[in-house]
Design goal:
Blueprint: H1 19-37, H2 45-66, H3 72-108, H4 112-124, H5 129-157, H6 166-187, H7 190-210, H8 218-247, H9 255-284
Helix pairs in contact: 1-2, 1-5, 2-3, 2-5, 2-7, 3-4, 3-5, 3-8, 6-7, 7-8, 8-9
Length: 286
């Protein structure tokens, strides 16, 4: 199982396919894939968690796309269910992120003592048999919630015939993303950057979903939006580890090592802010 399994062409409308028909087809394919990715093979638990989380995010984007046909109460219930599924997988995801960031920090420091200690802490940030079992259980629960949400959505949407147009929903998502980006770049606050990241991810999935209905610039825009969300993802990961170091320092981390690591993370965040701002400006000219 590889992370690319949840980025296949099946999550896009087909030529000569109505929005309704394509949407329902994608829901069914997503349900079938949710069963597959929730069964981790040996040594691939992180891939399964990653794939399931991406499916949840893709379903959120689909849910937003179809929201004009969904009552607010049903919409809120579906969103709450998907949020619960995401939370079930958050602990393992944060563990993987922390391990990756610590390895990155070890390569960024010239201090041998700090480098050695960061590598040691990274190696200790692994699943024990008990946490592995808990993660598998959480994964199965998250997949069950995902499947039930899809089935509920299918039952509800089959009763509706008035679907939003692809161009209108993408345009609305683009405006929301642009506004979130301006707020984030103005405030430099982690919460605003996280909101920008979520809006950008949604826009990316909607562009991929509806690209056959859009103009020839779409492929270039998709590439730029993908770059932005990747940088924002790196920024968010840095915030997660920074918060972890401040509130719950790893065992064996000295105060000096923590200060050193926090400085490296702050520098990384600064560079990422500059990079994402440059890419965002480039995307506006497409």
């Amino acid at each position: 199982m590889t992370p690319s399994i949840v980025n296949r062409p099946c999550f896009a409308f087909h030529p000569h396919e109505t929005v309704e028909k394509g949407f329902m087809r994608i829901l069914k394919q997503m349900a079938a894939l949710a069963v597959v990715v929730a069964q981790p093979s040996k040594g691939k638990l992180s891939d399964s968690v990653h794939n399931t989380r991406v499916l949840i995010k893709r379903l959120r984007a689909l849910l937003w796309f179809a929201s004009p046909t969904i009552s607010p109460s049903k919409m809120n219930r579906a969103k709450a269910s998907l949020q619960k599924a995401s939370h079930l997988l958050a602990t393992h995801r944060d563990l993987v992120v922390t391990r990756s960031i610590l390895q990155m920090l070890s390569r960024k420091t010239s201090n041998r003592t700090y480098r050695k200690k960061l590598i040691e802490i990274s190696n200790e940030s692994t699943d024990t048999p008990a946490t592995y079992a808990k993660t598998v259980q959480a994964l199965l629960q998250a997949a069950a919630i995902l499947l039930e949400t899809i089935k509920t959505l299918e039952r509800h949407l089959e009763k509706h015939s008035h679907w939003p147009t692809a161009a209108k929903r993408v345009s609305q998502a683009f405006v929301a993303t642009k506004k979130a980006g301006k707020r984030a770049l103005k405030s430099h606050g982690p919460a605003q950057f996280h909101e920008w990241r979520k809006k950008t991810k949604r826009l990316l999935y909607l562009l991929q979903l509806t690209q056959i209905f859009l103009d020839t610039r779409t492929s270039r825009l998709i590439a730029k939006v993908d770059e932005i969300q990747a940088k924002l993802g790196d920024y968010h990961d840095s915030v997660v580890v920074q918060d972890h170091f401040q509130k719950n320092p790893p065992d064996g981390a000295t105060p000096l090592l923590i200060i050193h690591s926090l400085k490296l993370l702050e520098t990384r965040k600064h560079h990422l802010r500059e990079e994402v701002q440059t890419i965002a400006r480039q995307s506006e000219s497409i």
